[in-house]
Structures are given as structure tokens and as C-alpha cells.
Design goal:
Metallo-beta-lactamase, Chain A, alpha/beta, 14 strands, binds zinc ion, about 240 residues
Length: about 240
């Protein structure tokens, strides 16, 4: 299994950066996890977007779906061949309803609503979800293949589901939009680097990749905080390819 970080910032990117987008590949299968602003451009540095097998949206916030609204133009105007004009499968939470209803566009996407019991296979991957706690419904994803396991937290504040869901993951890709000082100050909706690290430790994850980083923070602060609780922590880096 291979993970390429296309964008790792939120809720907006720094100059030259991108918001959430992760390409997961194995055995010729291409899965895009989230499709925030800047992701379509980055994706094409690695693969043709028409070669995606599925897009999984964790939640319906703009920093996770913006480029989906652009990619649909490409899919409609630039089909790979006359024989391959099938809609691209897309999985997303059905709420907020107004956002969900905007997703289909001239059949560019075959939209499927996620729920807390969703479980499905795509190529060599078995995909399951877990409910997070965020301003809108948000799902974490677990991708299991014959070779490895990847868990992506998506956006969530601390919740009891996440550590069991990430149990023994080979790679835990976890948001860390905050530092502990933010949690102490009462901010909600996201995890701190320390919380991400404590979840990784409780889960027994083999490696932690911190993501959804705030564009105006010195990233080394996140890493220093996380490593107090979990040594095998790293910062996600855009354009890096991780072999899992
Ligand atoms: Zn976000």
C-alpha cells in the first residue's frame, strides 16, 4: 500500500500549499481520500485524475471537497474514452443535505451516502468508517488491504471511537489542527497534536502522521508536542510518498 500526501493543511493553505487530499494506491487501484482546494492540481503530478477508482469524502466542508467541484468539469469535458464515461464512484456523508445535493453534476459522480455502518470493498481494499465529532457529520476511514492498514481520522475532536478504530494500524494519518494550548483555551472540533499522539499510543498504531496542519503555525511545534506522547510521530509532507 502506498500513500501520497497531496495536501495537508486546513482550514486553508499557505502559499503554494493545498488542503486535505490523500492518494492511496495498491495493485493498480487508486483511491482519493478527500479532495480539498489545490488537490486536483497536485493529483495530476502523480496520476491522471480519470484513473481514480473512487473518491471518499470524510465530510462536507470546503477544505475537504472544493476541488471535487472542479474535477467534475474535467470528468465531463475530457472523458478518457467513449467507452469509459461511467460516473466516478463517490462516498460522502449525507449531511448537511444542501451540500450533499450539490455533489452530483451531470452524472460526473455516482454518489453514495455513508452511514456509521458503511463497509465496502474497492479493488484490494476493504473500507470501514467510524463517526467523528465535528461541526458537521464526519467519518474516519480505515483501509485494509492484504498487505497493510491505513486509518485516516479526518476532522474530529476527541472521541471514544477513534483509538479502537485505529487499533494496530500500520499508519495512522491523524489530524492535529491544534496544540494543547488551544484545547485548554476551549477550542473544539479538532484534535491537538498531543491528543493525536495519545490516540496513536492507545491504538498501538505503528506510525503516526500528523496532518490538517494550521498554515500559520510553525509545524515543529506540532511534532515536539506529539513526540512527548508517541515517538513514532512525523509531520505529513506534501508530495511525499509513504510506503505502508
Ligand atoms: Zn478540515
Amino acid at each position: 500500500m502506498q500513500l501520497t500526501v497531496l495536501g495537508c493543511y486546513g482550514p486553508y493553505p499557505p502559499a503554494g500549499g493545498a488542503c486535505s487530499g490523500y492518494l492511496v494506491q495498491e495493485a493498480g487501484c487508486n483511491i482519493l481520500l478527500d479532495c480539498g482546494n489545490g488537490v486536483l492540481s497536485r493529483l495530476q503530478e502523480f496520476i491522471d485524475y480519470r484513473d481514480l477508482d473512487v473518491v471518499l469524502l470524510s465530510h462536507l466542508h470546503a477544505d475537504h471537497l472544493s476541488d471535487l467541484m472542479i474535477m467534475r468539469y474535467g470528468l465531463m469535458l475530457n472523458p478518457k474514452s467513449k467507452l469509459s464515461d461511467q460516473p466516478l464512484p463517490l462516498y460522502a456523508p449525507p449531511e448537511p443535505a444542501g451540500e450533499f445535493e450539490r455533489l452530483p453534476y451531470k452524472s460526473a459522480y455516482a454518489v453514495n451516502a455513508l452511514n456509521e455502518h458503511s463497509a465496502f470493498d474497492i479493488g484490494p481494499f476493504t473500507i470501514t468508517v467510524s463517526s467523528g465529532v465535528h461541526a458537521v457529520p464526519s467519518f474516519s476511514f480505515r483501509l485494509e488491504s492484504p498487505t497493510a492498514s491505513l486509518v485516516y481520522s479526518a476532522d474530529t475532536e476527541i472521541n471514544q471511537n477513534l483509538a479502537p478504530f485505529a487499533k494496530s494500524a500500520d499508519l495512522f494519518l491523524c489530524e492535529a489542527n491544534y496544540l494543547e494550548a488551544d484545547i485548554t483555551a476551549g477550542l473544539t472540533n479538532h484534535l491537538s497534536a498531543a491528543q493525536a499522539a495519545m490516540i496513536a499510543a492507545e491504538a498501538g498504531a505503528k506510525k503516526l502522521l500528523l496532518t490538517h496542519l494550521h498554515p500559520q503555525r510553525n509545524s515543529s511545534l506540532y511534532l515536539a508536542e506529539a513526540r512527548k506522547y508517541y515517538l513514532a510521530a512525523e509531520l505529513a509532507q506534501e508530495r511525499f510518498i509513504y510506503q505502508i
